[in-house]
Structures are given as structure tokens and as C-alpha cells.
Amino acid sequence: MAIPIRKSTFKTLIATLILITFTSSLTYQVAKSTYTSQPVYVDALPSSVSYLIETDHVGNYRAIKSDGSLTYEDTNASTVIQAAIDACPSDGGTISIKEGSYYVKNIIPKSGLRILGISKYATCLLDNSNTGQHAINWDGTEGTLHNFEIGNMRFEDAGTDIGDYIHLENVQAAYIHDIAFYTPEENAIYLKTAYGCDIRRCRDFAGGKTFISLVSSSHNYIADVQSGGMTAYGLQLNGSNVNFIVNFDEENTKVGGVPIYLYQSNYNVIVNPFIATFPTKGVYIDGTTSASRNNQINHGTIGGGQTGIYLGKASFTFIQFTRLDTNSLADITVTANAEDTVISDVILDSKTKISNSGIRTKVSIEVGYVTENSGTAIILASTSVTFKHGLASTPTLVLASFSKTGWRSWKWSANSTHVTITVEIRGTYTVYWYAEYKP
Question: What CA–CA distances, in Å, run from 313 to 200, 235, 265, 294, 327?
């Protein structure tokens, strides 16, 4: 016998089945999510942030829109970041990236875009680009990139394919700042046909090939940057003019590397470079079809290699207020291909000097390159005394007096560091001496 079902009971049963079905569907969706411990919706982001990129640290990534809604989610960090960039307004936007590691390749920026790590150096972009690609890549074929900013993060290499970390061509007014780079296989920062760009407070922590390259670029500013252990260049300017570099440090350059290299580049100013321990040349300025012209080096410290500053095909180079020491061959080499070099108020190592074969080289003051010196020495119950003369090399003249008058050339001998004065009668004397090195 069939049991009759009341209409109200039937409605209740249908509602219950709908609720169960909805609950099962919701449970499935949550289970599908890679963020089971976090809500899909978050509080709205600051109005200045277009998208927030984050990771669960086990290989899943998502982009959250400024209103707090989940927009993109994928196991490929590049896909998520690029989708967020593409969704930003045509005039740019801000992509904020939370702490964590993100494997990226061939991220294409847009004008007006800002890509910023939330915590300095805690956001890590691991470059796994294919050969011919770069981690951040604007090749200039789509026009000029304007006002792009990236900073507050670090880059590391995640593969063996050759590429740059930040590669920008045909770019204006880019701002690259507060980035730590580790072992770039090509360039940490590569700018070509760049104008009015600003690179500040960037560091290379673990060597690599080249730290910063400017190619056919002008009117750029580089400040407070540091690299070490590069195998090619710390800073390379190739066909680049009117750039200003201040507080550039490069230490422990590897064999084959040059800390600062200017090739057919003109009107560049390098202020306060600190270059220590390099294999051959500290600063190398050269050209082939044309000379590097009108470049300046001021207030630097360069030492610990073979030649501090080497001028090949260069003209109108100005070197001033720079200390050069502990260089094994020469502090400054001016080759026969160099013209109109001015060296002023430099401090040179007493063991080395300027090697000059250039045309119209002017050395106005050589502070520290001592050519004259004087002092007193005591002959104590003896016939001779030996003392340091402090000159740049072996003295060419030594005079002595026992009363500050009647100077004469007593019997003396000398080497590159010491003078010995000899008298005929044994005794105790105060010797007033004067020495000079004027070859």
C-alpha cells in the first residue's frame, strides 16, 4: 500500500535535496582550491595596488584584485603575474608581490606599471627563462616603454639558459631600485636605447657575468650600486653618452673581468667609484672606429690590480681627486692612442706611477707622488745612518747638513725606500737631509 506524501512534506524534501546538492558542490569547489587554509575573498587592497600576487609556498600562485576578489590562480607564476599585468589599465597600475619564491620567465611589462615586492629582498623572482628570453623582458618591438618601475625584491638564477634578469630596450624614465641580484648568467640589468632611466641601491651578492650594461643609452643616472666577483663587467657603457654614475662599487672581479668599461662612449661622469682587487684594469676606456671622448673620473679609490685606469683610444679624459694604489704595473696608463688627457690632484702609490705615451697629456698635480722630501736623522756613535726617504722611487739627489747650513752632497747610497749617509769621523751627529726624485 503506497503511503501518501503531503505537499508540504514534498516541498521540504525537495529543498533538502537542493541544499545537499549545493553543499556538495561548494565542498567540491573548496577542495579544488589550492588555498584550503585561506579564504577565496580577502579584504580590499589599498587603492594604490591593482593586484596582489601571492603563493602558498608549495607551487601555487594567485592574483587578487584591488577589491579583494580572486582573479587568477595557476601553478605557473609567470602566467599569474602576466595576467595581472595585462589586466591593469592602459596607463599602468601597481603589482605588489608578497614574500616567497616565484619562478618566472619572459614577463612583459607595460608603460606606467610598477612591480614591487612587499618586503625588501623577501620577494624572490627565480629566472627560469629559455635561451633568448629574460626574466623581465621588453624588446622594444612594441614601441617605447615609459615610466616603468620595479624594485624591492631579489633575483636569482634557476636554470642554465642564458638571459638577463631585467632586459629593457627602447625605454624612457624607468626606475629600477632596491634589488638584490644573485649570479646573473648574462646581465643583471641591461638597458638599450634607454633615456632618462634611474638605477639606485641595487646590489649583486654572488658574482655572475655582468652587473649593469648600458648600450646606445644616454642621460641615465646610476647611484649607490655594488657588485662583486663579476667575470665580464661590473659596469659596461657601450656607445652610451651623457650618463652620470655615482657611488659605484666593484670588488674581487674575476679573471677576465673589468670593473668599469667604457667603449666608444662620451661625456660620462663617474664620481666616487670604489674598485678593489681586480685582475688587470680597474677602469678601461677605449674605442675602435672612434675614441671615447670627454669622460670624467672624480673622487674615486682604485687599487689592487695591474693598472688602475687604462686609457686606450680615448680623448679629453679628465681624472681628478682619485686615489690609486697597490697596482702592480701602473696607477694610470695613458697609451699612444690617447689624446688630451688631464690628470689633476690624484694620490698615487709610491711604488708605481703614471705610464704616459699619450699625446698632450697634462699632469698638473700629483698629490702623494712624492718627488721631494726632507727631515732629520741621528748618527749615533757611528759613521753612517740609514732612514726612509718617502719618495716615489730611488732618489736622484741627496744633500745633508749638520747645522742647517752648508748643504753638501755627502757620501750617500739609496734604493727605492731608504737612504744611507756616511761620514768620515765616527761620532754622534744630527743630520739634516734633503732628497729628491726627479728623473
Answer: 30, 19, 11, 12, 21
